[in-house]
Amino acid sequence: MSLIKIFLKSKWDLNQIKKKKFLLVDGDYNPFTKYYNKKDFNILYRRGEKINIRILIKCILDLNISSLNYFKHFIKASSPRLIFTAFDYHPIFYKIKKITNIKTLMIQKAKRTFSDNIFQNPIFKDESKSENYYVDYIFLFNKTTCENYKKLIKGNYFSIGSFENNSHKLNFGSQKNEILFVSNFKIDNNGLLKENCENDDLVAMGLCRLAKENKLKFNILPRQRNKEENSKEFYFYKNILKDNFKFLKIKKDVSSAYKILSKYKYIFCTYSSLGSENLTKGGRTGFIFFKSPKNPYRYYRFGSLEKIKNKGPFWTSGYKYNSSELKRVFNFVIKSKQNVWKKKSKVGRKVLEFDYNNKIFRNIVNQELKRWDTKWSIWNFFW
């Protein structure tokens, strides 16, 4: 995107860029501060939220007001040892190696399916060949996702699971013997449910009924964190479930959902990264997914990208709501013996790996920082 199209609505930064150890591309999300000091990061805003005037002037003098040229000057001024991003789907990050020799590291932010543009868009596929996309270190959810990305982007691949999820463990001894349903509620500008919510009301009602029959409390983890949207979500469920549920409070910070999830023994969802994240840590999780053949979200079912079959012990999917299938999955999640659950749930690692405390990622970072220190020690010795 040309800077001319976005600079008018951006915040203007007149400060000189300070040299820092790390550069984060896209400042909307920075999970790396769990392990590295926030003060060691400069932020390069990919979407134009903030534009540094000094860098923009250099682009103007070059007669090249492009995003990539802006990146080049920003990186040079920042002089980082490593460049990070937590957004794995924007091509400009794959082009950075054209303008710098500094090592780049990218983590996967969310679930990918066959309907994602990164896999299906022919323009993107053609450009990936002509542009020779490259990222030094690429950390993705699973081996299947790695194989699909390798067709588009060159680099060193690591299957580590969800970076955010890897920072959280489950404490099984303190969990409540209750049901938690992870909501995907979302409405459009006309107040109508979006296609991703098709049949979710029937799933919620079915789970709530089975919870009551089994004398288990039914809780809902809301998706919407904005006060107004959260209120709409609450009344949506109140209209269909009456008073037979507890609508939980959720904070805006990312870790809030993980903290809530860890408190409950039985988790159910239609599709959700949170569901897969709970499963890969050993948590009892059920996936119940019913979307019509023309629904664009039909590829979001459990194990779609990994080509796992449509139905299994703790998951089901189909084009129409099926109460018998819902009950089957519910009973397995709630009633199966622990040794059986442990054996059958291993398939979850095909969907999402688990590398507690992100040891693989941190080891790579440490290796690169040591190489950088060694290089500059030699440089200083001779000069």
How would you describe this structure to a colleague?
- It is built from 14 helices and 14 strands.
- It has 383 residues and is an alpha/beta fold.
- It has 2 domains: 3-161 and 357-382, Rossmann fold (3-Layer(aba) Sandwich); 170-352, Rossmann fold (3-Layer(aba) Sandwich).
- A 6-stranded parallel sheet has the order 3-2-5-6-7-8, with helices on both faces.
- Helix 1 packs across helix 2 (67-78) and helix 7 crosses helix 11.
- The longest helix has 24 residues, at 359-382.
- It is elongated, with a radius of gyration of 23 Å.
- The model has no long low-confidence stretch (mean pLDDT 92).
List the helices and strands and how they pair.
Layout: E1 11-13, E2 22-25, E3 41-44, E4 50-52, H1 53-61, H2 67-78, E5 82-85, H3 91-94, E6 103-107, H4 117-120, H5 122-131, E7 134-140, H6 143-150, E8 154-159, E9 176-182, H7 200-213, E10 218-221, H8 227-241, E11 246-247, H9 255-261, E12 264-269, H10 273-280, E13 284-290, E14 315-318, H11 323-335, H12 338-344, H13 348-351, H14 359-382
Overall pLDDT level: 92
- Subunit organisation of the chains: single chain
Helical amount = 25-40%
Give me the Rg, rounded. Answer: 23 Å
The counted number of beta strands is 14
Q: What distance lies between the first and last C-alpha atoms, to the nearest angstrom?
A: 41 Å
The domain tally reads: 2
Please report the number of helical segments. 14
Anisotropy-based shape = elongated
As residue ranges, the low-confidence spans are none
For the record, the CATH class of the largest domain is Alpha Beta
In spatial order, strands of the major sheet run: 3-2-5-6-7-8
Largest sheet data: 6 strands, parallel
